[in-house]
Amino acid sequence: MAVVQEKPLLCKDFLARPKQLLIDGKFVDAETGNMFETRNPATDEVLCQVQEGGKADIDKAVKAARKAFEHGKWRKITATQRANMMLKLADLVEKNADEFAQLETLDNGKPIKESRYFDIPAVVETFRYYAGWCTKLEGETISNNPDFFTYTLREPIGVVGQIIPWNFPLLMAAWKLGPALACGNTLILKPAEQTPLSALRLGELVLEAGFPEGVVNIVTGFGANSAGEALSNHMDVDKIAFTGEDKTGREIVKASAGNLKRVSLELGGKAPNIVFADADIDAAVKGAIMGIFFNQGQVCCAGSRLFLDKKIHDEFMSKLTERVSKMRQGNGMDESTQIGPQVSREQQERVLKYIGIAKGEGAAVACGGDAPAGDLAKGYFVKPTIFTGVHNDMRIAQEEVFGPVLSVIPFEGVDDVADQANKIAFGLSGAVWTSDVKKAHKLAARIKAGTVWVNTFNMLDVAVPFGGYKMSGYGRELGKHSIDLYTNIKSVWVNLQD
Ligand code: ADP
Q: 225: CA distance to ligand 1 center in Å?
């Protein structure tokens, strides 16, 4: 019998240390005097207690960030020195990658293979990519008028608040920190209350990498009536970058009105995943599974509406359900797990509520449809679930579930599917599976979404812009587009007239 080697818990020491706020280069207790617990979604066990930052802590962090921005070393160092700090941070994350992967899986629930081979390498790559941008920020000269010398400066925005969700905790932190730091801003990061741990471990490495005090501040805590809200309506914060629910996005926009701070939003989605009869069916089946079940469906660009050409509906469904019924669901720390628990009891209940709504609307359960019993019952698990007989106007097809729930909708022809695909409030992503190049490009142009995949799904790259149309938000993250989110352009006019 093979002996299973128990992997050492590399994050044990970190879990045992106090979890404080990073403000002005030091780890400190919260002014609120409160702590909150973070739990392991696979077992419902408490992992540790974390300091609960509130308004007073946000005030302190903003002051530190302002001081660092206006008067600190940060403004005086060269772009190369800034790049070197970011490269050092990337190296440190890479050196501690296994520890980060375990921490992410324990706090979020995601399969360890995804933490280890997707999340953490993508974090390292993001810091390296944006380190490269430090030395490539440029203005321009404009010579329209011989009487004036006119040029532009690309300047950092200033003090930036960054509010992130729990689905890819460290990667979302990297998407925010990478470009903000590359452009020379100072920042306050507010991780999600469900998953504060990897950001705090990153904070330790930020100090080790040599970033001056106050450049990166990390305040853990809650959103509404707490740290998140205090950050988004703070009068001395110049910009908020937010990723999360559309409902929260609206609150952020309202809160920004006080000082009209810049806002960029990456919100929810309800992506159409369209399969034509002429597609490579086996590849599309795999793509549909990855599209909806990756990260337990807790992905804003998840392919939650599967549009199947009527001609292949039954063949596709039998292949799809056969594969999905064999998916190994379990504790994310188990190397063989393919689908883990939802992040929290609240999310599990929300997903189960939507499953109930879909059943009530008359959709048919093709597989899953409830929470697993037995060993998994104490965690926040929901079985991978597929509904057939869904109409695009049902709630299950229109509202973001943010869980492992797929709605299958039949269609007939390009115009029908293009209309149905676009009949949705969101517009983050979409996909088309076909062997017809013309059809692929025509639909790619017709789908109202920030990303369209052809014969693939969930592809992301740090150099390729990502963001939404419609209620999925505004602004584009990643690539050179993130640079626009974190800089202001200044025009300088010099009078040359004698
Ligand atoms: P979810 O409902 O899936 O947890 P949210 O959009 O509520 O997603 O959370 C994303 C992030 O937004 C978290 O860091 C959370 O604390 C924060 N947040 C929630 N509500 C507010 C708010 N009113 N103002 C600012 N931040 C908020």
A: 11
Residue 492 pLDDT: 98
* Selection from 432, 50, 70, 26 nearest residue 204 by Cα: 26
Question: Is residue 317 very low, low, confident or very high in pLDDT (cuts 50, 70, 90)?
Answer: very high
Q: Tell me if the domain spanning 272-462 has CATH number 3.40.309.10.
A: yes
Classify 12-267+473-490 by CATH class: alpha beta
Domain ranges of the chain: 12-267+473-490, 272-462
Ligand 1 centroid to Cα of residue 46, in Å, is: 21
- CA distances in angstroms from 423 to 406, 427, 435, 458, listed in the order given: 17, 10, 25, 21
Candidate list 134, 300, 301, 367, residue with the active-site label: 300
Percent of the chain with pLDDT over 70: 99
- Beta bridge partners, 329, equal 339
Whether 1 shows a pLDDT value over 50: the answer reads no
**CA 35 to ligand 1 centroid distance, Å:** 18
pLDDT in tens, 101-155: 999 999 999 999 999 999 999 999 999 999 999 999 999 999 999 999 999 999 9
With residue 169 as reference, give the H or E element that holds it.
helix 169-182
183 a catalytic residue: no
pLDDT surpassing 80 at residue 389 = yes
- Give the binding-site residues of ligand 1, using a 6 Å CB cut-off: 163-165, 190, 192-193, 222-224, 228-229, 232, 244-245, 248, 251-252
Enter the DSSP assignment of 215.
S
